Amino acid sequence: MIKTIDFLNSIPLLIISVSAVITILVGSFYKKSTKYVYAVTLIALIAAIYYSFGYLDKEYLIYNNFLRVNNITTLFSIIALFAVLLSTLSAKAYIEKEEINFIEFYSLVLFSTAGMLIMIQSYNLITVFVGLELMSISFYILTGFLRKRIKSNESALKYFLLGAFMTGFLLFGISLIYGITGSMSYANIFQDTSVFKNPVFLIGSALFMIGFFFKMGLFPFHLWVPDVYEGAPTTITGLMSTAGKIAAVGTITPFIVYTASDNFRLIFSIIALLTMLIGNVTALAQSNIKRILAFSSIASAGYILVGVAAMNDLSIKSVSFYLLAYTLMQLGAFIIVSLIEKPAEGINEYRNVDIEDYKGLARTNPQLAIPLTIFLFSLGGIPPLAGFWGKYYLFYAAIQSNLIWLSISAILFSVISLYYYLKIVVYMWFNPPANGDVYKIDSMPSLSILIAAFLTFLFGIFPQYFFALFKTPFK
Amino acid sequence: MPAAVQYIIIPLVKVVLIQITLLIGVALTVWLERRTAGFIQDRYGPNRVGPFGLLQPVADVVKLFMKEDIVPEKANKFIHSLAPAISVTIALSTIAVIPFADPIQLFGSEFKLQIADVNIGILYILAMVSLGVYGVTLSGWASNNKYSLLGGLRSSAQMISYELSMGVAVLGIILVNGTFELDTIVQNQAGWKWNIILQPVGFLIFLTAAFAETNRTPFDLPEAEQELVGGYHTEYSSLKFALFFLSEYANVIVSACVITTLYLGGYQFPYLQTFGLSPVLVSILQIITFLIKIFIIVFFFIWIRWTVPRFRYDQLMVLGWKVMLPLALANLTITAIIVTLLK
Amino acid sequence: MPDINTILFYIFAFLIVSFSFIVVFAKNIIYSAVSLFVTLFGTAALYILLRADFLAITQVMVYIGGILILLIFGIMMTTRITDSEIKTTNLSSVPAVFVSAGVFVILIIVLLTTKWNINPPVENDVTVNRIGNLLLTTYLLPFEIASVVLLIALMGAAMYARKK
Question: Residue A259, Cβ neighbours under 10 Å: how many?
Answer without folding.
Answer: 20
